[in-house]
Write a structure and sequence with these properties.
This protein has 399 residues and is an alpha/beta fold. The chain is built from 16 helices and 18 strands. It has helices at residues 9-13, 20-32, 59-66, 95-98, 102-126, 145-155, 163-169, 179-185, 188-198, 215-226, 239-242, 245-258, 274-280, 291-294, 376-387, 394-397, and strands spanning 37-44, 54-55, 71-75, 81-82, 89-94, 131-134, 159-160, 205-208, 230-235, 265-269, 286-289, 301-308, 311-312, 323-328, 334-338, 356-358, 361-365, 368-369. The longest helix is centred in the first third of the chain and has 25 residues, at 102-126.
Length: 399
């Protein structure tokens, strides 16, 4: 079959991207004249790699999916951090109206939340002072590159590489030069000078120095040629040539500093993960993270009915009834409570006395979104604010 093997937006909105048993269920319900007003919630029963928390993403696409469908939607905000078994979404309405969208709804939040979480963990590893750029679109189907890089940005990346992704985020794409340019021009210094001559001066000058030469000598040659115009040097050295990468970077840093090039940063890409970031931080000022973020493990959400026609009812292994998640604003301890009792819960944390806040808020009423969507930069700011209270014990992680 010619063309791209993707579902169109129209097919997704029409409910065609669904497991067939939902279509058959709809046919049976129609034939038997059965319908019910239900509440269905989305929770994660497990998290990848023994994570203690994850970042919720994908809500904007979910509200678009359900726009015009007669449902009410309560959910955590995008960029919120959640834990195991906490409901992040509740859809309320006629099951016949929204049941066919379960497959698509899960797909929208499972992958985006996994990517956002990996990005958040890299953000914590890098710290706030180092740049973190999403470089992973080339490892994924191009049709979903904007979704991937949006989720990476919401999770804490400072920028994205793909042009279409940057347009979605209302930001400028970030990138240096490829090995192809250095190979075609035939010299690292001349390739960097060509970039400097041709590309808009507002774009940082970052030279890729590992195509032909030893990194130390190439770094010094480029630094001498461009001087103060050079922002950073990028090392994308393949693993077969790296040896002890920290030692290579340390040597480059030493030689640059010795000659007064202290303002030239070192930017690393290629095979970077959160452990690598933590190890290289002493000598690195920025990272381009690719597959580690874009191929993040999905968050294994499920959607389950918890109430039918006002009566709590759920399958085995599920807590029935509508719920609220309450969080202390200071110690960040959570409590899952029945929705009807949420208002009776203490307004202040019994442990520290700080205010308790509900995390699930009404996002849609009668199939209509409530209020304007936040800009991606504002959602990212929310994520970063939350991450300040969810630090990772790296000594324990790296054992």
């Amino acid at each position: 079959m010619k063309g791209f093997h993707i579902a169109t937006p129209e097919q997704i909105k029409a409910g065609a991207v669904t497991d067939v048993y939902f279509q058959r269920t709809a046919a049976i319900l129609d034939a038997k004249g059965i319908d019910a007003h239900v509440r269905a919630e989305f929770i994660a029963k497990s998290l990848p790699d023994a994570w203690e928390w994850a970042v919720f993403a994908g809500l904007a696409e979910l509200t678009h999916l359900l726009d015009g469908i007669d449902v009410n939607l309560r959910a955590m905000e995008e960029g919120e951090i959640f834990r195991l078994l906490e409901p992040v979404i509740e859809i309320e309405g006629s099951y016949r109206e929204f049941g066919v969208y379960e497959t698509a709804a899960l797909g929208l939040i499972c992958q985006a939340s996994g990517i956002a979480t990996r990005a958040a963990r890299c953000r914590l590893a890098a710290g706030s002072e180092r740049k973190l750029i999403s470089f992973g679109a080339r490892r994924m189907h191009p049709a979903i590159a904007p979704m991937i890089e949006r989720a990476a940005y919401l999770g804490g990346c400072d920028g994205v590489a793909v042009v279409a992704s940057a347009e979605l985020l209302d930001t400028e794409p970030v990138g240096t030069i490829p090995h192809a340019l250095v190979l075609l021009i035939g010299d690292t210094v001349r390739a960097t000078q060509a970039f400097d001559e041709v590309i808009d001066k507002k774009i940082p000058r970052i030279s890729l120095i590992d195509t032909f030469d030893d990194e130390k000598f190439a770094a010094l040659q480029v630094a001498k040629a461009l001087g103060s115009r050079l922002t950073a040097l990028r090392l994308d050295t393949p693993s077969s040539r790296r040896g002890d990468f920290f030692e290579i970077l340390s040597e480059v840093r030493w030689e640059l500093d010795l000659r007064g090039y202290t303002d030239i940063g070192l930017f690393v890409s290629g095979g970077v993960d959160e452990e690598t970031i933590h190890q290289l931080n002493p000598v690195v000022s920025g990272y381009g993270v690719g597959t580690w973020i874009s191929a993040a493990p999905i968050i294994d959400f499920s959607m389950d009915i918890v109430e039918i026609d006002g009566e709590p009812l759920a399958k085995r292994g599920k807590w029935s009834g509508a719920k609220q998640v309450l969080r202390c604003s200071a110690c960040y301890e959570d409590e899952i409570v029945p929705l009807q009792k949420a208002e009776e819960w203490p307004e202040h944390c019994p442990d520290c006395g700080s205010a308790v806040q509900p995390l699930l808020a009404t996002q849609m009423q009668g199939g209509q979104p409530l209020g304007p969507q936040l800009a991606p930069s504002d959602i990212r700011a929310r994520t970063l604010q939350r991450l300040a209270s969810f630090a990772i014990d790296w000594e324990d992680e790296l054992q």
